[in-house]
Amino acid sequence: MDAVAALNEIAFWLERGRAATFKVQAFRKAAATIEALAPEELEARARDGRLKSMKGIGDRTYTVIRQAVDGAVPDYLAELRARTAEPLAANGHSISAALRGDLHSHSNWSDGGSPIPLMVDAARVLGREYLALTDHSPNLTIANGLTAERLTAQLTEVEKINAAVAREVKNDGGTDFRLLAGIEVDILENGELDQSPEMLARLDIVVASVHSKLRADRGTMTKRMLGGITAPETNVLGHCTGRLVEGSRGTRPQSEFDAAAVFAACVENNVAVEINSRPERQDPPDNLLQQAVEAGCLFSIDSDAHAPGQLDFLQYGAERAELNGVPVERIVNTWPLDRLLEWAGKGAGKGAAG
Predict the structure, then answer these.
(1) Domains of the chain, CATH where assigned
(2) CA 13, CA 306: separation in Å to the nearest integer?
(3) How far apart are the first and last CA of the chain?
(4) Helix (H, G, I), strand (E, B) or coil at 283
(5) Contact at 8 Å (CB) between 225 and 237?
(6) Strand order, beta sheet including 298-302
(7) pLDDT tens digit string along 91-104?
(8) pLDDT tens digits, 140-196
(9) Is the peptide bond before 232 cis (omega within 30 degrees of 0)?
């Protein structure tokens, strides 16, 4: 099989299984190292051992490349395929099957680990019909948030990728796919969004999230969140409590806010409440998720993926949606693309619900 594809698929399965970042990056870096080599050159270097001396190629990645060059599925890849054949979640399979897309993902333009094309390739392999690219806004400097200038440049890349996919589908067949232009925009302390209305109007999807001062008092946090929700550009309220329940960053308690007021504002302003699928977030907590259901909110089950393999985390969100009684018809990313974009308003404020 193709050696680059083998290395990237191994990285995908490791990401999906929440392996250590350094282990994943060994395979991603090896794939990038050999990608520019002509097939004949790669084969020659693999067979005579010169490949071992190239920066970014270790013993295990060399073995994978050599086995692929020899025409076999590498042993390590076969092992990972067998080991990860089972679903990630025990429940929520019917909701998982209904999901058409994902409205929250990151690339290496901000704090993600992979280029946009790799995220797109993984989304398509997983059967997604659309994926929103939602890198961070400039206020989140620790995550290399995008200035208006960088976001404008990214929009050009999104257009190029969609054009390439359209050509591929036209020439070779297959399922249509759309990369949606988006952003995860910070809700600032004064409740305003961390990007100009003119810039946000150019995007398909706007996820608005709080990332700082999460221990603010209940009244302050409620006012801040209501400012973000009522902004006409907002489509999705991201990871509403900001909590962390596990993982390498440790744990963090949920922020305090008037949930009744926040969810009522989401309903009134046609903003979906995100069910964040990352295992370390599980946000909102079950009690708030049930409260949002009772309030009549729309929902978006999102991966918040920072690597291709994490796009499959949607299974975790689907499981929590099922266990907490979220009606599938109120999950916006089960909708066809044209209905989704009509709801999102696409640059002209928010459209009509459902």
Answers:
(1) 3-83 (1.10.150), 93-344 (3.20.20.140)
(2) 14
(3) 45
(4) strand
(5) yes
(6) 101-102, 130-133, 178-186, 205-209, 236-237, 272-276, 298-302
(7) 999 999 999 999 99
(8) 999 999 999 999 999 999 999 999 999 999 998 888 999 999 999 999 999 999 999
(9) no
